[in-house]
């Protein structure tokens, strides 16, 4: 049904109905934002990636051919953009453009959960310490609850490799959270 | 590491063989301690879902689409758009500049081999696919991002994509050091590769 809805919406958009894009954007924008947010760890970068992804969808939807689901296609874009942003950070860090210990904070953050703020910060720090590929699989499994097969289609990696990466991610999270206890 | 931790983590990540998994589930049904340990570990990971809090400001999502439309309109402004003919040489110039500034004194054979692999893995057609579009340039980071972003949606086949990604990983990922170790000759090869792709 979801796939049929998406098929209908994409076709409507390609036939000139701009409101179909609005519907698609509204349907997926939270998933896009939260994935980027877990990967990048702050609102500013997640906001930028979310906007970029929606622009790419708008511009490239005409090339989408339903060989995968729309969700998988969008997910590929957001996960690649998030990884690119992390790479860009590494490049900047390498060229010393950014302070290595810089902690990006944003007064306009959309999370208002003051009561859990300290706990949320601790969890965020743990996630930030995971190597990029382990963080990616941890986010996709743990937050987005995707199957290995779905992740394999999105990332192009083998299921076996993904399992190994996830195992190491879990192990590292355990070690880091054990230290704090 | 606690007694059963390794096994539980393998179970959760589906790393156990069918036989091991069955055995583990039998143990689980018989041992209250093991079940308790599994629950405790699972809770450790579940708590990360707090990061995706329900208590987020909905106004942000309501204001997202107008911002996106505004940026789409800005993007069609010809002043802000650079043609590929200008974008690609700029990218090469940045690489050259970075190498000139940051190149270390000695070369490492391993780095040279990897650099060669990068050069060998970039096919003219593939690079061309990456460059055949207009690219918005605001700073060097955006150039790098834009070029790989075409990978997301470019209609080239999977093996070509894999080659590009592998090559790009070597160049840009955590291994950016490799690019600093290119010799003049290797750099020239890379430049030629990109230049030939532009005129492809």
Question: What does this protein structure show overall?
Answer:
The complex is a heterodimer of chains A (181) and B (200). With 181 residues, chain A is an all-alpha fold. Helices cover 74% and strands 0% of the residues of chain A. The model of chain A is unreliable at 96-104 (pLDDT under 50). In chain B, helix 6 runs antiparallel to helix 9 (158-172). Chain B has two domains: 5-51, no CATH class; 78-198, no CATH class. The termini of chain B are far apart. Mean pLDDT of chain B is 62; it is low at 77-82, 124-157 and 168-180. With 200 residues, chain B is mainly alpha-helical. Chain B has eleven helices and no strands. The chains are: A mainly alpha (181), B mainly alpha (200).
Could you give a short description of this structure?
The complex is a heterodimer of chains A (181) and B (200). Chain A is mostly helical.
**pLDDT under 50 segments of chain B (min length 5)?**
77-82, 124-157, 168-180
Q: How many beta-strand segments of chain B?
A: 0
Query: How would you state the average pLDDT of chain A, rounded?
Result: 82
Overall pLDDT score of chain B: 62
Query: Greatest contact pair?
Result: A-B, 58 and 51 residues
Topology overview:
The complex is a heterodimer of chains A (181) and B (200).
Chain A: H1 2-14, H2 18-40, H3 43-60, H4 70-94, H5 117-129, H6 132-143, H7 148-155, H8 159-180
Chain B: H1 5-12, H2 18-30, H3 32-46, H4 58-75, H5 84-102, H6 109-121, H7 124-131, H8 140-153, H9 158-172, H10 177-180, H11 184-198
Helix pairs in contact in B: 1-3, 5-11, 6-9, 6-11, 7-11
């Amino acid at each position: 049904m979801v796939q049929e809805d998406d098929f209908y919406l994409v076709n409507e958009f390609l036939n000139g109905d701009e409101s179909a894009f609005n519907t698609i954007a509204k349907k997926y924008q939270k998933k896009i934002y939260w994935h980027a947010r877990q990967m990048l760890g702050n609102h500013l970068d997640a906001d930028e990636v979310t906007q970029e992804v929606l622009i790419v969808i708008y511009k490239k939807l005409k090339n989408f051919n339903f060989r995968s689901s729309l969700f998988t296609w969008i997910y590929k874009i957001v996960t690649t953009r998030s990884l690119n942003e992390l790479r860009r950070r590494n490049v900047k860090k390498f060229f010393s453009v950014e302070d290595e210990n810089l902690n990006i904070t944003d007064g306009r953050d959309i999370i208002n959960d003051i009561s859990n703020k300290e706990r949320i910060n601790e969890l965020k720090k743990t996630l930030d310490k995971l190597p990029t590929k382990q963080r990616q699989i941890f986010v996709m499994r743990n937050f987005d609850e995707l199957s290995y097969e779905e992740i394999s289609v999105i990332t192009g990696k083998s299921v076996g490799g993904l399992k190994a990466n996830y195992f190491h991610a879990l192990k590292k999270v355990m070690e880091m959270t054990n230290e704090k206890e | 590491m606690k007694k059963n931790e390794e096994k539980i983590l393998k179970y959760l990540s589906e790393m156990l063989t069918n036989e091991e998994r069955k055995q583990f589930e039998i143990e689980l049904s018989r041992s209250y301690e093991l079940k308790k340990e599994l629950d405790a570990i699972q809770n450790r990971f579940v708590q990360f879902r707090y990061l995706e809090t329900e208590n987020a400001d909905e106004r942000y999502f309501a204001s997202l689409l107008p911002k996106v439309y505004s940026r789409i309109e800005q993007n069609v402004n010809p002043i802000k758009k650079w043609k590929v003919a200008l974008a690609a040489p700029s990218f090469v110039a940045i690489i050259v500049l970075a190498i000139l500034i940051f190149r270390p004194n000695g070369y490492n054979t391993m780095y040279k081999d990897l650099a060669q692999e990068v050069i060998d893995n970039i096919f003219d057609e593939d690079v061309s696919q990456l460059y055949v579009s207009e690219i918005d340039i605001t700073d060097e980071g955006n150039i790098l991002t834009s070029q790989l972003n075409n990978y997301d949606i470019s209609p080239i086949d999977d093996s070509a994509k894999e080659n590009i990604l592998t090559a790009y990983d070597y160049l840009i990922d955590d291994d950016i050091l490799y690019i600093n170790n290119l010799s003049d000759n290797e750099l020239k090869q890379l430049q030629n590769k990109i230049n030939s792709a532009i005129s492809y």
